[in-house]
Write the structure tokens for this entry.
Amino acid sequence: MTDKHDNNNGDDKASPEERLLGLVRLLSDQESPAGPTPTLQEIQDWHLGKLDEKRAKQVKTHVARDTACYQIWSDLIAAEKEADLVTERPDSIVSKLFNFFKQWWLTPARTWAGTGMVTAMLVVVVAVLMPYFGSWSPLDDPIQAELEYDWPYAGMSITRGGELDYRQKVAIQVGLRKAIQTTTMAKLGWAEALQSLPEKTIPCDKATDVQVCQQTTKILSNLGLHTGVQFLACLDYEKHQQIYYADEYWQKLTRAWKVIGKELKPLNVAELQKKIDQLSTSNNKEQQCGLVRDVIYMSY
């Protein structure tokens, strides 16, 4: 459905995001149908990338403009979903948008209204997908940095003061530990740091509200992971001016803070929330490095 499908060798490995982007490209296709109306078999072959480039482009224009062809194509998507060829989490997002576009397209009262309508459709896509695409994790893109420093907090122990309670501090430190493990070389050189940080979060079985406790623990552990990775990036930046952590990586971290900031709001941790909100809006590496240090201190 994307250009990849138009030119690949029949190996249909498109992700849900690619499928949705392909649908958007169909919506914005301004060409009139070209060539003869495709058969069911041709639409299937186009879907799998088996047609030559010329015919693939012709079939694409029919799917983009002919409701009958579009219906066949949408049925193929539905069949794939039933066969579990689309992963669970993004599928819930894609299927909602897909059904929205499908209903909009197939309603007789709807007609193409030029680029204005296409722009409106694209706005819907961006608004719905923004939270999903912002959920990048350092675990998805581990850094292999040969760090030359000691963990500066190795001699500190968790206290019971401050905005966060003991359980919450442990959750953040578990995330910090995971950050060090994620940095491959750090597994060898930072053994003392790993020993000084808790390996597991405190169970929620005795909490007043177990579900809330588990969700809070999960959010703060994830926050600790991002904090630790950015702190390691800060150490590397201050020593080497970003040998391992390129600008693109910093940008991913900054975008991730926006998502974490939204997740934090129900926890009512005003001071921590302020730090994360600042991290999500700052473009200054020195300021970000100061903020992640503050967050680490809050976990002690």
Confidence is low (pLDDT under 50) at residues 1-14, 83-91, 108-115, 126-134. The radius of gyration is 24 Å.
